[in-house]
Amino acid sequence: SGGSVATRWAQLIAWAGSIVAHRAELVVLAQAMVQTACPATAVGYLARHDIVATWLYAQITDPSIRPEYKADVIDLLPAVVVQGKQDQLQVALNFLQEKYFPVDSSEWLPGSVERDTMVTLYQALLRLLVTSGSIVVLRTVTCAAADREHACAASIDLAMAQFMKQHSQERQEEALKEVYSRFAQESSEGEVRLRVVENFLIPMILKASYSVVVK
What we know:
The protein is mainly alpha-helical. It has 2 domains: 1-80, no CATH class; 83-215, no CATH class. Helices cover 69% and strands 0% of the residues. It is globular. The model has no long low-confidence stretch (mean pLDDT 89).
């Protein structure tokens, strides 16, 4: 079972060491653990196993790990994200934003390794946002997409709609407040505010529950 595997995670970490292929096997193992849970309990399923959660977050902040591998790890994060206990998540998100997400995605040309990496990781964050409903993830997603024609614009629009459709009215309200606070920041330039409205507020409001919008 997932629990019995988690109790042996320290030995598995020792076996994997710094060998990327072995670490990748542990990611596959963690994926299998999550798949044993029913869909209703998959979010947060591994959160009670601190050693597993800490190891997964460490893969994201390890500068020696390939971005494609990090994306696979991000896809596992819904299983360890718990509302109100997101310090490690915030550290991982800060690392991703500082290392991979430029202020303007057009800084990197289409087809470049840097742009492809940014798209891969940003789309992984969008999937994490939709599945977990994390406001902490939403904050990073909005801050990392402030340019006129973001490389993931179509994916952002779809993800925001899915987020609002899949989560409770309470979470929808939290999300709208978070995005509006980003818009209302006095330090934000006019162009940035416009992008927040176009990329996030409009698609979110269009899919929000009526009672949330008129509150």
